[in-house]
# Entry
Amino acid sequence: MKIFYRLIELVNKSILALKDKGVGFFIKKVRVFLTKDLFGRNFSLIISRGSYSFLWRKVFETYKTKGLIIFIFRLISVVLFGWIVFFITPKIIDFIPDKKIISWYKQNKRKVSIIIPTYNDFELTKNCVKSILETSNKSDVEIIVVDDGSRTEFVSKLKDLPVKLVLSEKNEGFAKTINKGLKQSEKNDVILLNNDTVVKQGWLEGLQFWAYSEPTIGIVGPKLLYPDQTIQWVGTFRNKSEADWFDHYYRFQAGDFGPSNFSYPILSATGACMYIKKEVLDSIGLLDENFAMAFEDVDFSLRAWQTGFKVVYCPKSIVVHLESKTRGKKQGEREMRSKDYFWEKWRDFFDKRNILTNEGKLRIIYVTLDNGVGGGPRVIFEHLNRLKILGHQVELYSLDDGPDWFKLDVPIKTFKSFESLLADLKAVEAIKVATWWETAQVVWESSILKGIPLFLVQDVESSYYKGDSDYQSKVLSNYRQEFNYLTVSDWDREQLNKEGISAKVVNPGISEIFKVTNTERQKNQLLALGRSLNLKNFNLTEKAWRLMTPRPKLKLFGTEPRLGKLLGVNYEYKPTDQKVVELYNESEVFIQTSIHEGFCLPVLEAMACGCVVVCTQADGNDEFCIDGKNCLIVSKTDVKDVVEKLKIAFGDVNMKESLITEGLKTAENYRWKEKILELEGFYKTVARKFGNSI
# Structure
């Protein structure tokens, strides 16, 4: 009966949310409901993209681990609410099948002018033109070949090609050559295309589909491959080791490298192949002819961003660029002149970002997807509160309401969609902090023109999508080189290093309230965080507890009280911090059998409150857990090992005293008083990199 009352309550809340806060907020809340209360975080993502390969395993796991009644309730909930996500939520564009793109193109296609610069390479040009004609209808394209002062015999061959030919008397460089072609075009959308390229079937359809997938998209670049089918270009970023040059994402990776299969906004498209909508040319004009050779494309893309147009990468368009992988890095005189001119023009844009208040304090905005109970949100909120105490101007921008479980003392702005969040965020000069991969893109994009993008990675988030390689790749595609990275443990830093990312480690702290009190310890009381998330591996704790004789008194806390009912034990639902301190202080042993943790605050908090800690080696807790010294480390799979260690934790008096003493010492090394100063120092270092005197 309680199940049906809960369903009625959910329906009422849904109607109120829809009425009071609009469709966008309502859909977001449905996503959160499906994510947290039904078949796990992956479910809503699977529904939204229409792929069910992972769903059936989740359904089976739910029935097997939660029982028939819970399974039926969740199934009914999906029937009632799942259709909203499926039909109303926009599909993720990267998963749209090729046939749908082709279908869209047939109904919406518009003619494009393809401008190909040439210089003394007829065979390359002929093959390029041939590939265009083989992959598109002649009536859909206007091919303009602009020769940049080639030899007479080369020009005579060009006259035989089925193209509009524009000739130059002398060699004038890329920008002037392209501009001559733009002036000769039929005022269509334009594609700039190097003559040493071969386009593949669907290339044009993909570029045009992406260009018109959003009104603000102005420039689109394709996936460029080397002849051996490895990646040459899928986006441009500033090279951190050689800051006056730009590099390409995923260069030399396999052509089907997972993160390259997703669209994302990019700093710049490449002149080797660049789709430009007509309104961009109308707004910003031609290429800057002061560039002798190189940097013209980056300059043009930045001007587009400044005018309000997005530049994006399209993974569905494939172009082979016949440039050699071993081409020398030595630059000629024209390239060096272009480089010098570019940085004379754009140096301040890249290197000077004023993110200080009038009082000389930092402006920092954290961006969250939701603010539910958890260790990750707690760290974010502690950052905000404590940075405010230090005098900095800090805010929280979120797609969720403010937390009802944590007293947050900073301004909170709530948004109904990423679009509205982006509109506000891009107008602000601040250090902007992404806190989850789904917030990374909006933080990065909002920082192109103003502010400094930073990514707080509390766990390498692809670990949340085990068994779903598509979404693991989607996560990693948001780990942009342009971010300044902050993480919480050495383990996380090592994982980011594997992705070519350098990060600063600032461990989380624990609040001053987590300490030993005069609360009386309850003999043989075992405390655990009751969570069903597979990474928390609570089943192992449960099995070990059931096997113990005599069985200790088990007490649970968290946000899933049904776990307490299933086990017939006391469950503290959403306890306050003060209540959690009381739970730690009244318990002899705290156990956490996680498969993986980014850091693991509960273990530290338990140590600070004088609990004996039994835990697994869970990656992030390597930072502070030492087996036999301040805790007992158990196997992630061997329940007998857990039982034996629990017996020691409860029964070996000398071991208990030693573990408690060392645990208290460990906890003192992780107090916020010191950690927040370390965090502030990191932010100041980032600010100084961008010309702020602080």
